[in-house]
Amino acid sequence: MTNKHTQLVTDRHSTRAYLPTPVPPELLHQVLRLARLAPSGANLQPGNFIAVQGATRQALSQALVTAWRAGEQEGEDYAYFPDPLPMQLRKRQVGAARALYGALGIERADEAGRAQQFERNFRFFEAPVALLVTLEQDFGNGGYMDLGMALYGLMLGAEALGLSSCAIGALASFPRLIRNQLGLPDSSQIVCGVALGYADPNAPVNQARTTRCELDEYFRVLG
Ligand SMILES: Cc1cc2nc3c(=O)[nH]c(=O)nc-3n(C[C@H](O)[C@H](O)[C@H](O)COP(=O)(O)O)c2cc1C
Q1: Looking at the domain assignment, is residue 214 inside a domain?
Q2: Contact between 166 and 195 (Cβ < 8 Å)
């Protein structure tokens, strides 16, 4: 069965190029209120969304790009990927990379081309809205679960309002730099960034589409 609600979920995809059209503050507030309707354990509603703009955003992106180009490395506030990555997950990662770089016509061996695209993470893909998502340090793992739901709520809410988005986990590689740049306390864990705005329909990168594994790979019936 398909209806406008299922269509919304099906249509959402990560968007990595945006029109310069600004997002009115009231619309951004609406998206964030929709995100906050996500359920959370005991309704604790963990986490914060910080819009980074103007000179602050410029300086943050510049510092991130400089650190990344210099090959600087920091410990992340939380481990995202299993280490080592099991082969089955590695295959999915490669599939996502193929979709992205394939849409851009960047060959696997083209390290410079890949690096150029990766660097765009640190510029929030030039989206009109750049968000930083943080979680208080003393939250347990449940906080990440709740925040994930809020993030998806944000993405679907944005989609329903004609906006597009992309989560940016790459930012979590530089938590200390980000805290320093934004004057955040040590207790603010850097979870990810989010790019938000009106999709550029003509950008090749936005033609990238990922697939999902088969139902029987993640669902089974017992009893
Ligand atoms: C928590 C999270 C972090 C992500 N980080 C990045 C990122 O740093 N850079 C990027 O280009 N895409 C990032 N993505 C987008 C994923 O690659 C994308 O969601 C996945 O490949 C599935 O594609 P889809 O969103 O188009 O359905 C992230 C997504 C999530 C949920």
Answers
A1: no
A2: yes
82: which residues sit within 8 A by CB, 6+ positions away? 89
Whether residue 113 lies inside any domain: the answer is no
Ligand 1 nearest atom to the CA of residue 170, by list position: 8
When computed from its CA atoms, the radius of gyration of the chain, rounded to whole angstroms, is 18
Report how many domains make up the chain: 1
The answer as to whether 97 is a domain residue is no
Q: What is the pTM of this model?
A: 0.97
- What is the rounded CA–CA span in Å between residue 82 and residue 216? 22
Please report, in tens digits, the pLDDT of each residue of the chain (223 residues total).
Answer: 899 999 999 999 999 999 999 999 999 999 999 999 999 999 999 999 999 999 999 999 999 999 999 999 999 999 989 999 999 999 999 999 999 999 999 999 999 999 999 999 999 999 999 999 999 999 989 999 999 999 999 999 999 999 999 999 999 999 999 999 999 999 999 999 999 999 999 999 999 999 999 999 999 999 9
- CATH code (residue 185): 3.40.109.10
- Ligand 1 centroid–CA 222 distance in Å is 32
- Ligand 1 pocket, residue 96 CB under 6 Å: yes
